[in-house]
Amino acid sequence: MHQKVIILDFGGQYAHLIASRIRREQVLAEIHQPDEVDLSFFQDEMIKGIILSGGPQSVYDEGSASCDTAIFELGIPVLGICYGHQFLNQALGGKVIPGKDSGKEFGRADLTHDGHCPLFKDIPKTSPFWMSHGDEVSELGKGFDGCASTDLCHNAAVWNETKKLFGIQFHPEVTHSQHGSQLLKNFLDICEVNRDWTIEKFYEEHQASLKKEIGDKHVVLFVSGGVDSTVAFALLSKILGADRVQGLFVDTGLLRQDERDYVEKAITDIGARLTVMDEADRFLGNLAGVYDPEKKREIIGNTFLEVQRAFFKTHQLDENTVLAQGTIYPDTIETGGTKNAATIKTHHNRVPEIQKMIDAGLVIEPLADLYKDEVRALGELMGLPHELVWRHPFPGPGLGVRILCSGELTEESTHRDEKSFSLQRNKKPFDVLPLKSVGVQGDFRTYKHPGMLTVAENDLAELESLSTKLINHYPDINRCVKALGHNYKGRIESTKVLKADINLERVARLQRADHIVTTTMHEMGVYNDVWQFPVVLAPLSFNNTGEESVILRPIDSIDAMSATVGKLPWEFFEKVTAEILKDDSISAVFLDVTSKPPGTIEWE
Fold first, then answer.
1. Partner of 588 at 20 to 30 A CA spacing, among 7, 43, 90, 288?
2. Distance, CA of 39 to CA of 77 (rounded, Å)
3. Residue 568 placed within a domain
4. CATH number, residue 245
């Protein structure tokens, strides 16, 4: 038996990410719902530590997530993170209040500690950590002392030395908390837990559990060509044998340029069985006249089911066949797939009909507990080609979630007076664009406008920092963009959002822009310098020029749970912009300079 750390999942996006970080330190981590375990559970001598995860609720709300507070008296070290930090303090007599606009933090925050708390051993006195909170601990629980703060959060870290209780408002588990891994290592040292768990052991144990779950059934898996579905396909083929696993690649008409040829070759090269179905007319037909982002995702998911049923009928498959999906954990939690989680966006693998199949035990998701970095590690462990494992992620719905739609023609002024927030460089740092995108703030979905920065700054780190400050201050924006170039002349006099759905012409337009980005990355040798690079098409026209605008979204991440702007050379953006603007239908090109949180990686 392994010694272990127990994570109580208060929802949000973080419990499984914490677990993956703990597992990376070769410590077994188990996730449990806080109201499904009692005090006797924690009296297991193999439990060496307890972590209370973040969550989207407010601790002072009626019915908010809670656990048995008697666990704080067991002598087992406890680490409360974000919501867990607030719950820990409130449970022991402290006070949590809604943060004012100036006290809310989403994204990077520089944290300074006092050097006394063992959580911060070997961590610089001031360093960046990732925040995502709207509430704050205003009064500490009994026996707690403050030990770290940020400019906007006085009690960013607290501890009760006698009881070994620790509370932190920030998220050390996300990649972009620079010394987050060290902080979690320090907590494991405090727990005095053995480090004897490895990804190889997980792989070995997971093979056995999958064999038991599947039994003697055959498996059909939709393959997108992305990392997740490819690794899932390879894993199932290895466990069950290629003759029991049928790959189904659907050409939805929403693929990247030349994607179909690439996928066929890649899957064939790893020795798996693949059937290709041309269903572009079906998908585009079902999406015609649809504008709402959630409705588009639902239609794409249900259309995949239509294709599946047609395939099953043609090939006479029956109840002895189950559907497999390459769903990973961020897909699940952003759809509200855990008990206390809020819905950020509905993944196409989580539309209602598929969810019913999951509930009925007709769907297998071999990667559902993993994050992108773990999926890649698993792929390399199985011997998949490096270039396949490290290919940029691409969403299952394809370009369908990168083509923004609008059900009506609107024309608005983009001017916004700046009253209370001023910068030395410019008293009017952004205008509001008259369209919306999805964000994630305080573990909740937001659907707000982007701010178009009006500053001359070209330093990506500075632009990202400015974006975070503005979004933390203004509640009506959840991301910021920087104009890179345009086909209109003079200053912006009018801005129009054109009525537009998904059609062949718009798909071809985005394919061209996306191909320019990918080709240029390879030509300049910077493809591996970013983790992902979504290219977004929006029906946005300035000064009556063109029909669309293109948004570039370079991403630096490991696990998709947190992200910063990919720091490519400015010359790259200039070259790409010039090439994209050769298309007269493009009015402008923008660069998204928003971290996650508060902006999601995709715009829909």
1. 288
2. 15
3. yes
4. 3.40.50.620
Please check whether residue 100 lies inside any domain of the structure: yes
Residues 131/174, Cβ–Cβ less than 8 Å: no
111 pairs with which residues across the strands? Answer: 127
Residue 282 burial class via C-beta count within 10 angstroms: exposed 0-12, middle 13-18, buried 19 and up: middle
CA distance 162 to 159: 9
The enclosing domain of 71 has a CATH number of: 3.40.50.880
Q: What token pair was written down for 62? A: 């009626």
Spatial CA neighbour of 395 closest among 267, 491, 534 = 534
The CA-based diameter of the chain, rounded to the nearest angstrom, is: 71
The answer to whether residues 575 and 478 belong to one domain is yes
User: Is there a single domain that holds both residue 349 and residue 461?
Assistant: no
pTM of the model: 0.71
Residues in CB range of 402: below 8 A, 6 or more apart: 395, 510, 514, 534, 535, 536, 537, 602, 603, 604
- Rounded Cα gap, residues 167 and 281, in angstroms: 54
Query: At a CB cut-off of 8 Å and minimum separation 6, what does 598 contact?
Result: 106, 107, 132, 439, 440, 441, 446, 468, 471, 472, 478, 479
d(CA 542, CA 538): 12
Q: Give, for 575, the enclosing helix (H) or strand (E).
A: helix 570-580
Looking at 191, 210, 245, which one is the last position of a domain? 191
Whether pLDDT at 104 is above 80: no
pLDDT digits (tens, 9 = 90+) for 467-507: 999 998 898 999 999 999 999 999 999 999 999 999 999 99
What positions carry a catalytic annotation?
82, 171, 173
Q: What are phi and psi of 52, to 5 degrees?
A: -100, 120
502 touches 403 (CB < 8 A): yes
366 and 428 both lie in a single domain: no
Residue 84 · residue 51 · CB < 8 Å: yes
Highest average pLDDT, of 228-232, 347-351, 484-488, comes from: 484-488
Q: Cα separation of 376 and 39, whole Å? A: 37
Q: Which domain holds residue 464?
A: 410-592
The answer as to whether 601 is a domain residue is no
Question: Closest Cα partner for 222 from 212, 233, 211?
Answer: 233
Give the CA distances from residue 168 to residues 2, 25, 326, 437, 544, in Å, rounded to whole numbers and listed in that order.
Answer: 27, 20, 33, 30, 50
Position of tokens 């969403």? 395
Residue among 112, 83, 89, 84 at smallest CA distance from 163: 89
Q: Which is higher by pLDDT, 258 or 441?
A: 258
CB atoms closer than 10 angstroms to residue 268: 12
Q: Which two tokens stand for residue 66?
A: 């809670």
End position of a domain, from candidates 168, 191, 214: 191
Helix (H, G, I), strand (E, B) or coil at 7: strand
Angstrom CA distances, 106 to 27, 134, 142, 167, 597, stand at 29, 9, 28, 18, 6
CB 120 within 8 A of CB 180: no
Token duo for residue 266: 């890649």
Q: What is the mean pLDDT of residues 162-178?
A: 91
* Percent of the chain predicted with pLDDT > 90: 59
Same domain as 232, residue 158: no
The number of domains in the chain is 3
Between CA 589 and CA 591 the distance in angstroms is 7
Q: 389 and 498 share a domain?
A: no
CB atoms under 10 Å from CB of 523, counted, come to 11
* Domain membership flag for residue 603: no
